[in-house]
Amino acid sequence: MKNPAFQVSILAGWAIACLCAAQEAPSPASGPAPVPAPLRPAFLLTAAVHRDGEELSGRWTYSRDLYRTGLTDINGWVAKSRMQRFRDIDIAASERRGGTDFFEFDLDRGPAMAIPGAWNAREPELRYYDGLIWFQRKFNAAPRPGRRAFLRFEAVNYRAWVYVNGKEAGRHEGGFTPFVVEVTNLLREGENRLTVGADSSHDAKSIPTPITDWDLYGGITRPVRLVWTPATFIDDATLSLGTDGRITGEVRLQGPHAAKQKAEIAIGTLASVSAVTDKDGRAAIDLPAPGALRRWTPDQPTLYDVRVTAAGDLLRERMGFRTIAVRGKELLLNGEPLFLRGISLHEEEFGPNPARDMTAPQARALLHEIKHGLHGNYVRLSHYPHSETTLRLADEMGLLVWSEIPVYWTVDWDNPAVLRKALAMQAETVYRDRNRAAVILWSVGNETPVSGPRTRFHAAMADNVRALDPTRLVSAALLVERRSAGGKAVMAIQDPLVDKLDVLAVNTYAGWYGADTLDALAGLDWQLPADRPLVLSEFGADALAGYRSGDRRKFTEQYQADYYRATLAMAGRMPTLAGLSPWILKDFRSPRREHPVFQNGWNRKGLLSETGVRKEAFGVLADYYRRKANQGGH
After folding, report:
1. Mean pLDDT of 383-391
2. Could you tell me which of 45, 177, 414, 623 has the fewest CB atoms within 10 Å of its CB?
């Protein structure tokens, strides 16, 4: 790529500037640089779904850019004169006038696809396209006196360049988190031209890297909205219930009159409180929890209408209040022991041709399978932040959530610029979802091999997320070490990262990968720290729906069901076990899974097929969770 500044990261609106990677060659011995102060996007637009605005979903035209000519400018003439797709030019009108200008693009008359959604599923010829595509959407708007205009993108995978009427509005890196760009001074009366360059390519310095076990779908994968606010507006408001019985939080204003403003917060009809913003537009909130407050639980996911008013602006939210804590080997929800009956979930798990366009009905259908089909109370959202729609439905339906960013397998651990990307993604996730009572666990990594630089990287992430949100617990999906002791196989956690974690979690596939038979699982011993709860964050076995055999062989439904029986029996002997999230609810696409009979580009560890057919193991896990639920607790 010819733009060196963007090889690292340019996050639109961020208060911290990232330097060029070439200027920040790290010392391999030193590890990542010290963690900066917690990052905060310049604009959050919390609860933007409830604000005055315009949805920009629908048909967008597009143009593939295989040679990235829309971003390059070779010697100042090739791209700029003919190929920069974001230019505000009506080429057809120029042709009608008999103009002699020459262009090698025309987004006005290009092919179109439905947005949001990954291009890989929209058009057959783009199934495995990996690179840059330009998208265009025209909309009518006009500047409004005394009002500000923002574009809020819920996700563009992986890098985004945003132009309005030919002028750059912002850039962003990271495929699963929201970003906001202000366009107040870029709008014009009548028709406006919005152009977005979406680049799906990953490299050694991206998060994740190109090596994954899921499909790295490209495009504008989540909704885009044009949002209007007053000149001074409520950018963010958050509240949480502490174990001390108090509700605390903050309100932040943006704009020329953000200081010394009275902010008023009402929690349904239960309580109200006011505070005055400081010179930075922040007002701290602190009040005793009302006696009539009903605490959020999976069985009774009570949500309250929260209203915040300040400087003539109104912000509306739906929020629940609960506490989450650890006591020795126990997880405590509202002070009571909690066992997590869950499963892992990929966002693209819907239908035979998933497009990572998670609509509310689709998200509800998947969560319903967990809540009511499996008798679950918990979902591990893997391996990246899922859509805001999914998180809000988890709040409503009563499913506890593990959330993570894609620091997964391989990362450039020694590179300070890559660490800053991870911290920025973390911040974008936390600020988006910290009002969701369902979220109880922030994960700082998945299956990363132990090394000094890697541990320092994850430790920095743990410190960062605690600074951003001290009200939730921190975990990570760790690898386990297998060794022999006294003639027996022993599974142990040998990872210095455990010192940074509230909840330990391990991924184990004994009986599927490796030499262990299912019968051998009964003889496996686990050596675990006794002072913290453990979650089996992953275990699983592939099965092709409908494939059965008279004997026990892999890829059959019987083998998968027997694998679950053996693994659940093994888990029952773990004295610190506090939850399960097996891998995975539904079969999902993964280009690395190439077996021509059983996989064909799909990871088949789902308890449901890609079309929703329940496999035998679904019933095994559902029966186990039903018994767990009947034993009491949440």
Report:
1. 97
2. 623
